[in-house]
Design goal:
Could be a nuclease involved in processing of the 5'-end of pre-16S rRNA. With 180 residues, this protein is of the alpha/beta class. 54% of the residues lie in helices and 21% in strands. The protein has a 6-stranded mixed β-sheet, with helices on both faces. The termini are far apart.
Length: 180
């Protein structure tokens, strides 16, 4: 099922994690969140072959890491519209939803705007990490998946913080009303 990110996080069971996907034409970068949904860590790259085999590999990762939801990077155009790459990613997600037998799980998915994620990661790897081209090629997809997932986790953390502040303000208002 497709959800908003907040809905997806609310559906997670105890100790379930989110798996970030950077879906490309040749590979799928993978990153996993810690159980507290604070930090995203790159875990690998899935070389794309046939969908059936790709989904089975993804299912193994889902089981190995106690995944409760997928955050799939959606490559929007700079103006926010969806082009052929976004359509391809949506088709990949739709196929996952239609084949729980391959995943071993009823997929729970949220999309995350991934504009410029790969280029941001590449800039970091060139400028800050001073990686060789060969090494960048080996890690860019899983690092992009971590970048995508970390953006989603940061948004969830911000939502939790705002909700906690609103609850605190409400309690302060109740305390003030009790003094009248």
């Amino acid at each position: 099922m497709i959800h908003t990110l907040s809905e997806l996080a609310a559906r997670l069971g105890k100790n379930q994690r989110l798996l970030g996907l950077d879906v490309g034409t040749k590979t799928v970068g993978l990153a996993v969140a810690d159980p507290g949904l604070i930090v995203a860590s790159p875990i690998g790259t899935l070389k794309r072959t046939k969908f059936t085999q790709d989904a089975r590999e993804l299912g193994k990762t889902i089981r190995d890491y106690s995944i409760g939801g997928l955050v799939v990077g959606l490559p929007l155009n700079m103006d926010g519209t969806e082009g052929p790459r976004a359509e391809s990613v949506r088709a990949f997600a739709k196929n996952l939803l239609e084949r729980p037998d391959l995943l071993g799980w009823e997929a729970e998915i949220a999309f995350w705007d991934e504009r410029l994620s790969t280029s941001a990661v590449e800039r970091f790897m060139i400028g800050e990490a001073d990686m060789t081209r060969k090494r960048r090629d080996e890690v860019v997809d899983k690092m992009a998946a971590a970048y995508i997932l970390q953006g989603a986790l940061d948004m969830l953390a911000n939502q939790r913080r705002l909700a906690a502040e609103a609850d605190e303000d409400e309690r302060d208002d109740e305390d003030y009303d009790d003094r009248d």
